[in-house]
Amino acid sequence: MYISSSEEGKNTKYNHVAPIDLDTIPKEELEQALMEFAEGSLGLEKCLREMWKNGLKTIACCAGNNDPYEIAYIAMAEGVDIFSYLSSNLLSNDMVALESENNQVIRFAGFEENKEKLMLMLAEDISTGKKNNSEQVKEKIGKSINSEWKKEANIYYMRKAGLTEEKIAFELYEMELIQKMVRGTEEGRKALESEYWQTLMKQMAEKHKRGK
Length: 212
Prior knowledge:
Structural class: alpha+beta
Distance between the termini: 60 Å
Helix content: 40-55%
Strand content: 5-15%
Number of helices: 8
Number of domains: 2
Mean pLDDT: 83
Strand order of the largest sheet: 3-4-6-5
Radius of gyration: 21 Å
């Protein structure tokens, strides 16, 4: 079983990019490893503790505490089912996202206090055992994090990257159109696609004019 953090440059024995086989960690150092993986997060620490105690193996985790909009996550080892432990409260929360391609991943969004609360809920869910939740899990897998939160995060990171407010507005418009095209009918998609290209050409023309 492997556990690693996605964050580079940590001066710790266990929390670094290279995967670590948990079974190779001396028993007397398991507590140290857990604390390092938790990155100061009480919620992540409790989750990992409950997982280890119940034989639920992970491959990666992140406390999401490097900036206000970073998403916390826990990725399970192949074949490990964490989703069957999730309660209705966690599954119905739109700041929680589930992914299940090669392995199960659960992600938590929100400011630090909210992420901590959600991870503590997950720890409690694990401690209370498996749930009869297969239908709710199926509906949850692949659903995005709260759209308003994602928009706030996109604006935050675009401003951080130095984009102008005009460029940010267009990027948000583009994202919204793409989402509508994905969800809409074929006829609606064609109309939106035409609208998108007209807007893009108009923006390019205005940019060219200003450059002269």
